[in-house]
């Protein structure tokens, strides 16, 4: 086994493990397939370097088969692990009745007031002045402006 083959095989294995560590640091499993392919190809280089010595076309086909095989095996794993949820769409209808937190004073007739509802900041207006820090209920709205009212009881869901 030549030094170049050992270095190449070891380098591919190390690169694969670096991608695995990166995937653990930032979960999502998006780096799992390339990491597994790099480790597998590096291991092939280390175990039997003669596979690649005299037949570059065979080497290319093996690499292609390993990459495609890894992807084919990983797709069902991704589908099992990935959470399934309906698309999230925020509309005035979905916000109506929710509780929000006033972040900038809300004043009648202006859209300079701001409220945070479901993690989003919206422009808001009301029939009365509502100071920042107050809890409000979304009563409706138009376009991108919510109409809010002070919370009268504990109903609604949190911001």
Description:
The protein has 159 residues and is of the alpha+beta class. It folds into 2 domains: 3-81; 92-150, OB fold (Dihydrolipoamide Acetyltransferase, E2P) (Beta Barrel), CATH 2.40.50. The chain is 46% helix and 19% strand. It contains 5 helices and 5 strands; from the N terminus they run αααααβββββ. The protein has helices spanning 3-25, 32-47, 50-53, 56-81, 92-95, and strands at 99-104, 113-117, 120-125, 135-142, 145-150. The protein has a 5-stranded mixed beta barrel. A hairpin with a 2-residue loop joins β4 (135-142) and β5. α1 runs antiparallel to α2 and α2 runs antiparallel to α4. The longest helix is centred in the middle third of the chain and has 26 residues, at 56-81. The chain is rod-shaped and about 80 Å long. The termini are far apart. The relative contact order is 0.11.
For the terminal residues, how far apart are their CA atoms?
63 Å
Which whole number gives the mean pLDDT? 80
Shape: rod-shaped
Tell me the number of structural domains.
2
Describe the biggest sheet?
5 strands, mixed, barrel
Measured on Cα atoms, how large is the radius of gyration?
28 Å
Given the helix and strand composition, which structural class is it? alpha+beta
Our count of helices gives 5
Side-by-side strand order of the widest sheet: 1-2-3-5-4
Counting DSSP E segments of at least 2 residues, the number of strands comes to: 5
């Amino acid at each position: 086994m030549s030094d170049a083959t050992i270095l190449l095989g070891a380098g591919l294995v190390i690169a694969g493990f670096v991608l695995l560590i990166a995937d653990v640091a930032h979960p999502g499993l998006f780096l799992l397939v390339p990491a597994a392919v790099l480790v597998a190809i590096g291991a092939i280089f280390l175990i039997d370097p003669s596979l690649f010595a005299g037949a570059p076309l065979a080497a290319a086909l093996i690499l292609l088969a390993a990459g495609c095989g890894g992807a084919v095996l990983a797709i069902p794993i991704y589908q099992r692990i990935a959470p399934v949820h309906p698309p999230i769409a925020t509309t005035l209808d979905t916000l109506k009745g929710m509780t929000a937190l006033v972040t900038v004073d809300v004043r009648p007739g202006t859209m300079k007031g701001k409220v945070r509802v479901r993690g989003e900041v919206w422009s808001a207006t009301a029939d009365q002045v509502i100071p920042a820090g107050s809890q409000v209920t979304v009563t409706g709205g138009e376009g991108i402006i919510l109409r809010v009212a002070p919370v009268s009881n504990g109903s609604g869901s949190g911001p």
